[in-house]
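Reminder to self: tokens first, then the designed residues, so the page reads top to bottom the way the pipeline ran.
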């Protein structure tokens, strides 16, 4: 699974890397984080129609927006279901009602500098403690984590209340292979640059999107780090420092 990740690059760096045309105002208020956790506000890259001054919609533009981590389906009675939908297994995207519709219409990329996994001790080891790893791109760039997003309307708020709409997102996971599988059996789905446009394009249907998830992942470096990352209250660049 992917239950913690880091996203600390400046908005402009992300905008340049992902060819973003529009950065939402609330994105600029988000601080850098080395320890993002479920229910936190996170940055997402989406292709959405531009909203014009008269309220109508214009051409598709690539936007950097915020979403709460943990998908809340449009049909949910309350947003608490999002706490259980921080990840979407790629094997069930076409089957689960919470994921099937956004897979066809609302796909996103979540920029990440790296993510964390915890390796269980070997059988017979003297400790039960899990070893955390920081997994980051070998080329020093960003990961583009494949995700889904959704809009949920709060029935308790008035139609003219700007807070009536909740935007939420989930990170897609897949089976880990090779060296990554020795650390954890699952990993976030990371898309290569050549797949970004098609993944974000709402004209690409669910079947087309599923073809993209079969592409190989970018090269990943696994760095053992201290257990300070275990506490969500801890945040800062020291979390990704390699153990001596």
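Designed residues (244 positions):
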């Amino acid at each position: 699974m992917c239950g913690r990740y880091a996203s600390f690059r400046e908005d402009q760096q992300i905008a340049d890397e992902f060819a973003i045309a529009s950065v939402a105002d609330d994105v600029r208020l988000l601080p850098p984080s080395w320890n993002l956790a479920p229910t936190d506000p996170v940055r997402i890259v989406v292709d959405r129609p531009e909203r014009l001054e008269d309220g109508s919609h214009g051409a598709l533009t690539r936007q950097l927006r915020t979403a709460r981590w943990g998908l809340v389906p449009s049909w949910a009675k309350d947003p608490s279901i999002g706490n259980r939908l921080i990840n979407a297994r790629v094997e069930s995207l076409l089957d689960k009602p919470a994921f099937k519709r956004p897979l066809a219409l609302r796909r996103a990329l979540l920029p990440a500098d790296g993510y964390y996994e915890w390796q269980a001790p070997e059988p017979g080891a003297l400790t039960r403690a899990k070893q955390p790893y920081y997994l980051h791109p070998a080329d020093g760039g960003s990961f583009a984590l494949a995700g889904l997003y959704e809009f949920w309307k709060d029935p308790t708020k008035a139609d003219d209340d700007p807070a009536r709409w909740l935007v939420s997102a989930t990170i897609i996971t897949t089976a880990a292979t090779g060296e990554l599988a020795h650390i954890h059996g699952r990993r976030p789905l990371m898309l290569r640059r050549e797949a970004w446009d098609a993944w974000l394009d709402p004209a690409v249907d669910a079947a087309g999107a599923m073809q993209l998830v079969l592409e190989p992942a970018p090269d990943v470096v696994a760095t053992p780090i201290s257990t300070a990352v275990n506490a969500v209250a801890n945040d800062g660049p020291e979390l990704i420092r390699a153990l001596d």
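The chain has a mean pLDDT of 94.
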